[in-house]
Specification:
By secondary structure, the protein is α/β, with parallel strands linked by helices. Helix content is 37%, strand content 20%. The chain folds into two domains: 2-180, HUPs (Rossmann fold, 3-Layer(aba) Sandwich), CATH 3.40.50.620; 193-285, Pantoate-beta-alanine ligase, C-terminal domain (Pantoate--beta-alanine Ligase, Chain: A,domain 2). It has ten helices and eleven strands. The protein is globular, with a radius of gyration of 19 Å.
Length: 286
């Protein structure tokens, strides 16, 4: 496995691969890898085959964190992540730093950002107003640096995947996005780098997110239900986990991400819940 930390070096490699006609798949991550990330690597390999190349990036992107969020505390373990990538069959690990990705930003020399103005407005966009601008900007930069044919993202960040799909289409990136299923622990909790923040009691109660998704599927299995009623029922349901503090709970059209007044099978549900200072998100198709 080759490790690249320079933007210029990454661009040279990408152009070399393009000239040679080599298929390239990109798996962008912020590190502190878990089995969910490794499943994305596996899916990337399936997409390009053994003759293609899988590039994983590890970069904790500061522009997608708000001023009171956990950028400074975000878990980091590059040696461990490097070993996991090598074992998983990653061909190139791209590990740039802030100076490479946003040169001169502190001095005002960097000032270009990518903004998606429709799908990014609600849910995560409402709770974290600057988040998606940071996400779309860094992913657009990674697309330009790696020049992949395929990019793989996880379905756990459903709104993010939708925003990035729209950005890819609107900006004419010749890239196929693959959205891979959410991986879960045996008790249903979606795998996330932030799960390690949870203490034992918080971790036990965090499964309430998964149970809320399952309860919603059951509620609309036979007939549509008014969204307001279902939200009220689920807010009551969440009180079974005393440490849970709801940030948002939404039912929406899976394509437009617009809220629906009546919830039925085929609609999407997403929620964000705090356990202490740790904010977890999850979603499901109903």
């Amino acid at each position: 496995m080759k490790i690249v930390s320079s933007v210029a070096a990454m661009q040279r490699l990408a152009l070399k691969w393009r000239r040679a006609g080599t298929r390239v798949a990109l798996v962008p991550t912020m590190g502190y890898l878990h089995d969910g990330h490794l499943s994305l690597v596996k899916r990337a390999r399936q997409a390009v085959g053994q003759a293609g190349l899988v590039v994983a990036s590890i970069y904790i992107n500061p522009t997608q964190f708000g001023p009171k969020e956990d950028l400074a505390k975000y878990p980091r373990d590059l040696p461990r992540d490097t070993q996991l990538c090598q074992t998983a069959g990653v061909d190139v690990l791209f590990t740039p730093d802030n100076a490479e990705m946003y040169p001169g930003k502190a001095e005002g020399a960097y000032s270009t950002f990518v903004v998606e103005e429709s799908l990014a407005q609600g849910m995560e966009g409402a709770s974290r107003p600057t988040h998606f601008c940071g996400v779309t900007t860094v992913v657009a930069k990674l697309f330009n640096l790696v020049l992949p044919e395929v990019a793989v993202f996880g379905q756990k960040d459903y709104q993010q995947a939708a925003v990035l799909q729209r950005m890819t289409e609107d900006l004419n990136f010749p890239i196929k996005l693959i959205i891979a299923p959410t991986l879960r622990a045996d008790d249903g909790l979606a795998l996330s780098s932030r799960n390690q923040y949870l203490n034992a009691e918080e971790r036990a109660q965090a499964t309430i997110l998964f149970h809320a998704l399952e309860a919603s599927k059951l509620a609309v299995k036979s007939k549509p239900v008014a969204a307001a009623r279902l939200k009220a029922d689920l807010q009551e349901f969440l009180t079974a986990a005393p440490l849970a503090r709801l940030d948002y709970l939404e039912f929406f059209d899976p394509l437009t991400l617009q809220p629906v007044s009546k919830v039925q099978r085929g609609h999407q549900m997403a929620l964000a819940v705090f356990f202490g200072k740790t904010r977890l998100i999850d979603n499901a198709r109903l």
